[in-house]
Design a protein that fits this description.
TIM Barrel; 10 strands; 12 helices; binds sulfopyruvate; 45% helix; 2 domains; 14% strand; two-stranded parallel sheet; binds magnesium ion
Length: 296
C-alpha cells in the first residue's frame, strides 16, 4: 500500500537557506523526545551517537538493523522529522536500493549518505581512514536512493555527504563532487570539515553556486554561530552532531563520581531529573488515560 510521507514534505519546506533548520543528534527515543521538546526542528539519527551509546567505535561495528530500529522508535515518541545517518549506505548501490525502502517504511524524513568506502571510519577521529569512492560510483548510490523510496510518496529526502575536505582533497574536488551529487538527484549536500576554524567551510559555502541547500555539522568549529551560517544564504540545515551523547556522558560522569565521593545519593538529588520527570517522559499521562478507559 502506498502512503504519504508528510515528514519529508515538512522537512523540505523547512530547508530555508536564510533561516536554516536546526537538528539535534539523538542516540535513543528519550534523547530525541527531549530535543524535540526543546524546540529543535529535526532529529539527527546519528551513527556516532548510537555507536557511542553502545560504547563501540563509529565504524560500522553496529548493524543496520540496530540503527533502523532506533529510527523507528524515535518516530514513535515524538513528531519532529527524523534524518537518518546511513553512513556509506551499508554497501553499494544495490544495498542502498534494498535499505532505503526500509527506512522510508520507518517514517524517516531524510537519509544522509557519505561518499567514503565501507566500512567507514569516524570523520572526526584523528588519523582515521578517510578513503572516498569514485564520484561516479557515489552518483549511482544517490540515484538508487532517490529511486528506492518504496511505497512512500514522496520518498525521504536524499542528502549527499561529501567527505572531500575531511579526506584532504581540497575545495575544488569538494565542489566538483557536490555538483555531481546534485546532478544525480541529491536534494541537499552535506559538506563536512574537521578544521578547528570555520575558514575552510566558509570558503566552500561562498564558492557553492547554490544549486541545492547545504548542510553543516559544525562540531569542530563551534565558534561559527547559527546567525553567521544564516548570513551565508547557502545552508538549509545545521546539525548539532553529538551534543546529546556528550551532554549525557558528562552529566553521568559527574553524578556517578559525586555519589561515590559523597558516600550517598542525597547530594545529587537536586541536580538530576526527578522520578516524576521520568514518568512524564515515559508518557505516564497516556497510560493513566488508557487505564481509565479500558481497565475494569
Ligand atoms: C554522526 O553524528 O554520526 C555524523 C557526524 O555522521 S560526524 O560524527 O561528525 O561524522
Ligand atoms: Mg555518522
Amino acid at each position: 500500500m502506498r502512503h504519504d510521507n508528510p515528514k519529508a514534505v515538512a522537512l523540505r519546506a523547512r530547508l530555508n537557506v536564510h533561516q536554516p533548520a536546526l537538528a539535534m543528534a539523538a542516540h535513543n527515543p528519550l534523547s530525541a523526545k527531549l530535543a524535540a521538546a526543546a524546540g529543535f526542528d529535526a532529529i539527527w539519527g546519528s551513527g556516532f551517537e548510537l555507536s557511542a551509546s553502545y560504547a563501540v567505535p563509529d565504524a560500522n561495528i553496529l548493524s543496520m538493523d540496530t540503527h533502523l530500529e532506533m529510527m523507528r522508535a524515535i518516530g514513535e515518541v515524538q513528531d519532529a522529522p527524523v534524518i537518518a545517518d546511513l553512513d556509506t549506505g551499508f554497501g553499494n548501490a544495490v544495498n542502498v536500493s534494498y535499505i532505503v525502502p526500509r527506512y522510508a517504511a520507518a517514517g524517516v524524513a531524510a537519509v544522509v549518505m557519505e561518499d567514503k568506502t565501507f566500512p567507514k571510519d569516524s570523520s572526526l577521529r584523528p588519523g582515521g581512514r578517510q578513503e572516498l569512492v569514485p564520484a561516479g560510483e557515489f552518483q549511482g548510490k544517490i540515484a538508487a536512493a532517490k529511486n528506492a523510496s518504496g511505497n512512500a510518496i514522496p520518498g525521504p529526502l536524499v542528502v549527499a555527504r561529501t567527505e572531500a575536505l575531511i579526506a584532504g582533497l581540497g575545495e575544488a574536488e569538494a565542489l566538483r563532487r557536490g555538483a555531481a551529487y546534485v546532478e544525480a538527484g541529491a536534494d541537499a549536500v552535506l559538506i563536512h570539515s574537521k578544521q578547528k576554524t570555520p575558514d575552510e567551510i566558509l570558503s566552500f559555502c561562498r564558492a557553492w553556486p547554490g544549486q541545492a541547500p547545504l548542510v553543516l555539522v559544525p562540531t569542530s568549529y563551534p565558534q561559527l554561530s547559527f546567525a553567521d551560517v544564516a548570513a551565508l544564504g547557502k545552508v538549509g540545515l545545521i546539525i548539532c552532531g553529538n551534543h546529546a551523547i556528550r551532554a549525557a556522558a558528562a552529566a553521568m560522569q559527574n553524578v556517578f563520581r559525586r555519589i561515590i565521593a559523597e558516600g550517598g545519593i542525597a547530594g545529587v538529588e537536586a541536580d538530576i531529573a526527578s522520578v516524576a520527570d521520568v514518568f512524564a517522559l515515559q508518557g505516564d499521562d497516556r497510560m493513566r488515560a488508557l487505564e481509565k478507559a479500558y481497565l475494569r
